[in-house]
Amino acid sequence: MAKKIYRCAFYRRVSTEEQAEVMEGSLKNQLQRLNQFMESKKVFPREDEEWIYVDDYCDEGISAKDEKRPQYQRIKTDIENNKINTVLFTDLSRISRNVLHFLELTRFFKENNTDFICINHPEFSTATPYGTILLTIFVALMQFERELGADRAKNGSLDRAERGLWGGGQILGYDLIEKQHGYLKINTEEAKIVRYVFQQYLKVQSSYQVAILCNQRGYKTKCFTSRRKKLCGGNEFAYSTVRQILANPTYIAKKQFTKNGEIKNVKTTCWDPIIDLDTFNEAQRLLKANARSNSKNTGKTNKYKFLLGDLIRCNHCDSPLTHSCTRKDGVYHPYYRHRRGHTKEGCPIAGNIPAERLDEVVLSRLSQYLNKTDNALLLRHEVDKRNKNVPDDIKQVQDDIEEMQRLLRRSRQDHTNILNSLKESPKAIDETTREVMQKLSDDIKTYEAQLNDKKDELKNLQAQNSTDAKVEVILKDKKKGIKNLSTLSQKEIIHSLIARVALNKDTIILDTQRGVDLAGIIKKREGWTSNPYSYLDVEWVDEDFGV
Question: In whole angstroms, what is the distance from residue 383 CA to residue 137 CA?
């Protein structure tokens, strides 16, 4: 009688990396039991069988819920190549926990005349119909148990989230409280970074630019040691890092979670907020606005700085206008326009108002206004307003100076500590210590230079960058006027002097902060049939113009 030759493969698997790293753990125990099974076949041989060991296939730290396992795929390839015809494993859970995958595997074994043997449960075999159905039922029960456990874990997580407990791992700005699971405490140093991200985004309105500014300051992402004792985080800031911080409601003490496909935010008392609600809401508004402006239709909107943003309004529709760009012959043209769905029937205002022309018209009128206004009264008004609220740019430079001073103190202290330790135990300086000291020396020089630059910048800002100083420059030199200032300065002047720009059928009204209306009549050109707002030929009239 011809012998049946079993060309055997061992298949071993553990689910987690922790199990894989334990020297005397599951993987080694599985190998020992598989070797014992092979030895038993040699000790008590049968005349019609021959058992040959071929190879060992081991997947470390991989779940059995699917087939995306390198060694599992390799074993199937070797079966197809007739290298092996028998697979040995210690337990069914090692090879599959999914009924569908298991049935497909059973069919695959049958098509390739391959047997598999579970040495802990010899009755589970594909050699007989009884064994096949028993295996199918058993694997179904294993899948049910796994799904039931996952469902319990999911419901438990949702229950904790609805109570406002934290369950999302490490987060920049907070530390976990070990003895109070679900509670966070503010990390003072990291909270400064979070506040800096929000402040800078409201100022520059660019996630890319904020990431650059954070990296220039030497800020890093959250650095922590995982439960598996691995050092994680501590990376440079990127666009995605900034976006995740800005959109995270955790910083206003809210727990966000998804239930039944709906995103919910629950106010919590398990940690304190780092960012105030107004700042967070303004950041969300800018994120949405930037998302719209980055679409293919309005991707070049931010190329032009709209000077009348948030000021311009259609009186007929009683609605504020927004801004956008259209593309013609490869050139982008900026426009002010009605918000979608806010245009009332019969509105006399053009659909697209040329932004450059309207900004020019308003700037021209403001120059005349400043030249004729009581200088002392205007300057006093601007000085009073500035004294109530320190300008954001000055405050930001002051924060930068404070941060540079902190970094400089820390680097100097580290350098001094190393020198003192060398004095206490004199010995030759090794290469690593030399490199550390050189880096500290370079950092000290860099921080000193940056600190001096920031101090000079602060002096210039305090002397020239305040609104009243710019107004004073305009008043003293009437030839230059507001038109020759930078775009940023023009925008600051406009928003400090104008409360609203109201558009009517035939007039433009500038409502000043002092309660004076500046009015202009929109002239119609003979022979032109297009809307007068398309070319904006304005004749300004007396300030007491009746509306």
Answer: 83
Place of tokens 């509670």: 183
Q: Give CA separation, 15 vs 65, 73, 97, in Å.
A: 10, 17, 12
Q: What is the pLDDT of residue 191?
A: 92
What whole-number distance in Å separates Cα of residue 189 and Cα of residue 191? Answer: 5
- Assign residue 318 a region: left if phi > 0, alpha if psi is -120 to 50, beta otherwise? left
Per-residue confidence (pLDDT) for residue 294, from 0 to 100: 53
Q: Cα(159)–Cα(169) distance, rounded to whole angstroms?
A: 17
Structure-block tokens of residue 307: 């000077």
Distances (CA, A) of 472 to 143, 332, 382, 429, 533: 78, 35, 10, 60, 33
Q: In order along the chain (547 residues), what is the average pLDDT of each group of 10 residues?
A: 84 70 66 89 83 90 76 90 90 73 78 84 64 69 68 62 72 87 88 92 86 86 80 86 91 77 77 91 85 49 71 88 79 84 86 87 81 52 49 72 83 83 70 79 80 75 56 55 71 79 89 79 79 83 50
Q: What whole-number distance in Å separates Cα of residue 270 and Cα of residue 255?
A: 9
pLDDT of residue 386: 46
In contact, 87 and 11? CB cutoff 8 Å: yes
Q: By the 8 A CB rule, do 317 and 339 touch?
A: no
CA distance 106 to 113: 10
Instruction: Check: CB of residue 102 under 8 Å from CB of residue 96.
Output: yes
Domains and CATH numbers, the chain: 4-149 (3.40.50.1390), 174-293 (3.90.1750.20), 301-372+483-540 (no CATH), 392-465 (1.20.58)
For residue 186, what are the β-bridge partners? 174
Q: What share of the chain is helix, strand, coil (3-state, %, to 5)?
A: 50, 20, 35
- Are 309 and 362 in contact, with CB atoms under 8 Å apart? no
Backbone angles phi, psi at 8, to 5 degrees: -95, 145
pTM above 0.70, yes or no: no
Q: If 0-12 CB within 10 Å is exposed, 13-18 middle and 19+ buried, where does residue 382 land?
A: buried
Name the burial class of residue 235, with classes exposed (0-12), middle (13-18) and buried (19+) by CB atoms within 10 angstroms of its CB.
exposed
pLDDT of residue 300: 43
Spatial separation of the C-alpha atoms in residues 545 and 483, rounded to whole Å: 25
Q: How far apart are CA 189 and CA 232, in angstroms?
A: 18
Distance CA 262, CA 316 (A): 39
